[in-house]
Task: inverse folding
């Protein structure tokens, strides 16, 4: 694989959880060894959901700290905040002119939110995927590591790139998706839906204290008990996904064999899983605490990332403005 331009983003809303980590961030960390990587805290996306303005800039720094603590390296990767590069929102407007409105209305995430609170759904929720396309295309991104829930948005990004190229001449590559081995971690409280920052009890924060890890894992939904050779229920499958990611391989195998034979005790599985999570997340939590105690360092990381991102986005915008025929004086 030649050098790719990798782009991905995360919302600064609530706690970053093991679903974000296994579905995206772990993959981001790996990719930064081989490629030019842009990782962005997407604050303008986040304001389309209810949020607390007074606490928002702190939440953005919090997300930066969590990502760095999880292994993103501000010297190798371009780590920055969306609003600091206003070319994203400018490109979003231009791309809006080639985006079919019907496609936006077909997006699952839009439909889900419109269904829950139809009367308050704002236009930002509808146009959200255009800004996501602009994020990626501002850097001519070629590879986008995301969880499965973002696949539809990426498909639309590809369509927007094609439509722009058809109207104005070849400009953007069609970015490819990169999925991790666990692109969809389900909720611990309801395995029918994905683990989500917006559903308390569904997620395990990457920064959780040991007692909270134990409690969240102990409460995770399972079933009444395995039968020999029986199917694995979705809740139990989620625990095994976490075990695969955080426990030594032989531990996961031992529990899998016990499940097949119908002799697995979920309480034992949960106790071991919690211990493994506590041990593996400890260094992340420690680095996170250290960073949060140094807000100036965090701001320096954002300034440094912005200084690297902005010239690239500006170059794309100059090309785009010219192709679209915007006045230059
Ligand atoms: P966000 O903030 O919801 O999630 C960040 C990343 O975590 C992944 N993810 C999951 N993966 C597996 N299992 C889960 N339960 C789970 N929950 C979340 C998401 O798929 C995502 O990769 N719209 C995006 C942010 C965004 C973006 C972009 C992404 C804005 N611009 C440009 C890529 C490229 C979002 O809300 O992600």
Result:
């Amino acid at each position: 694989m030649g050098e790719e331009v990798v782009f991905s983003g995360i919302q600064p809303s609530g706690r970053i959880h093991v679903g974000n980590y296994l579905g995206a961030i772990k993959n981001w960390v790996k990719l930064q060894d081989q490629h030019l990587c842009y990782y962005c805290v997407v604050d303008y996306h986040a304001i389309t959901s209810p949020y607390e303005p007074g606490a928002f800039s702190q939440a953005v720094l919090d997300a930066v700290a969590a990502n760095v603590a999880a292994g993103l390296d501000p010297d190798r990767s371009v780590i920055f905040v969306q609003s600091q590069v206003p070319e994203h929102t400018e490109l979003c407007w231009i791309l809006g002119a080639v985006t079919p409105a019907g496609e936006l209305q077909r997006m699952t995430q839009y439909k889900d939110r419109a269904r829950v609170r139809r009367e308050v759904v704002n236009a930002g929720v509808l146009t959200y995927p255009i800004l996501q396309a602009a994020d990626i295309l501002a850097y001519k991104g070629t590879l986008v590591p995301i969880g499965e829930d973002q696949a539809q948005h990426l498909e639309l990004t590809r369509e927007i790139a094609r439509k722009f190229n058809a109207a104005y001449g070849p400009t953007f590559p069609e970015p490819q998706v990169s999925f991790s081995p666990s692109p969809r971690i389900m909720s611990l409280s309801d395995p029918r839906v994905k683990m989500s920052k917006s559903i308390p009890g569904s997620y395990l924060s990457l920064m959780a204290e040991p007692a909270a890890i134990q409690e969240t894992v102990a409460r995770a939904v399972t079933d009444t008990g395995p039968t020999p050779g029986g199917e694995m229920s979705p809740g139990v499958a989620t625990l095994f996904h976490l075990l695969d990611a955080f426990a030594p391989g032989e531990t996961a195998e031992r529990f899998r064999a016990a499940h097949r034979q119908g002799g697995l005790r979920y309480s034992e599985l949960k106790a071991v899983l919690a211990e493994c999570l506590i041990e593996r997340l400890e260094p992340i939590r420690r680095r996170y605490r250290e960073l949060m105690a140094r807000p100036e360092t965090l701001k320096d990381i954002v300034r440094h990332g912005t200084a690297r991102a902005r010239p690239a986005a500006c170059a794309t915008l100059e090309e785009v403005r010219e192709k679209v025929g915007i006045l230059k004086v």
